């Protein structure tokens, strides 16, 4: 690899399974997630897709501090997949603000084509 070649990230799938990063205080976890998204954008290292399931669906819903940044990623062509079963379980169906609501089959399909799968 030459020094001018940029590492690829557009072939990666990010799995977001919590409503923040790590297992610390929930507010800290959300701040860390927003900072992570800021750095992704600043570095121009957008993933190919981001899948949200379990508590992660809270990050795409109304009131989430990440919605604006996720919307910017979506406008830039990053596919945001939101678990329908999870959205319904948390009563968020009418509060999802970004992404496409899909099923576990959509998340599995994204995993199959991804070169890298990273869980945040």
Structural summary, described in words:
By secondary structure, the chain is an alpha/beta fold. The protein has a single domain, classed as DsrEFH-like (Hypothetical Protein Ychn, Chain: A, 3-Layer(aba) Sandwich). Helices cover 36% and strands 18% of the residues. The protein is built from four helices and five strands, in the order E-H-E-H-E-H-E-H-E. The chain has a five-stranded parallel sheet, with helices on both faces. Helix 2 (67-75) links the parallel strand 2 (49-52) and strand 3 (79-83). The protein is globular, with a radius of gyration of 14 Å. The protein starts with 11 loop residues before the first strand and ends with a strand. The mean pLDDT is 93.
Distance between the termini: 27 Å
Walk across the major sheet and give the strand order: 4-3-2-1-5
Beta-strand percentage? 15-25%
What is the CA-based Rg, rounded? 14 Å
Instruction: Enumerate how many helices there are, as a single number.
Output: 4
Helix content: 25-40%
Sum up the structure in keywords.
about 120 residues; alpha/beta; Hypothetical Protein Ychn, Chain: A; 5-stranded parallel β-sheet
Write a short abstract of this structure:
This protein is 36% helix and 18% strand. It has four helices and five strands.
SSE diagram, text form:
Blueprint: E1 12-16, H1 26-43, E2 49-52, H2 67-75, E3 79-83, H3 84-89, E4 100-102, H4 104-113, E5 116-119
């Amino acid at each position: 690899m030459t020094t001018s070649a940029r590492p690829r990230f557009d072939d990666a799938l990010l799995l977001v399974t919590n409503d923040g990063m790590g297992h610390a205080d929930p507010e800290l976890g959300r701040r860390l997630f927003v900072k992570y998204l800021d750095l992704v954008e600043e570095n121009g290292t957008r993933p190919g897709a981001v899948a949200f399931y379990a508590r992660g669906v809270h990050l795409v819903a109304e009131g989430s501090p990440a919605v604006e940044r996720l919307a910017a990623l979506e406008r830039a062509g990053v596919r945001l997949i939101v678990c329908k079963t999870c959205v319904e379980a948390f009563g968020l169906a009418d509060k999802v603000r970004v992404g496409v609501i899909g099923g576990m089959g959509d998340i599995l399909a994204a995993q199959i084509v991804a070169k890298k799968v990273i869980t945040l």
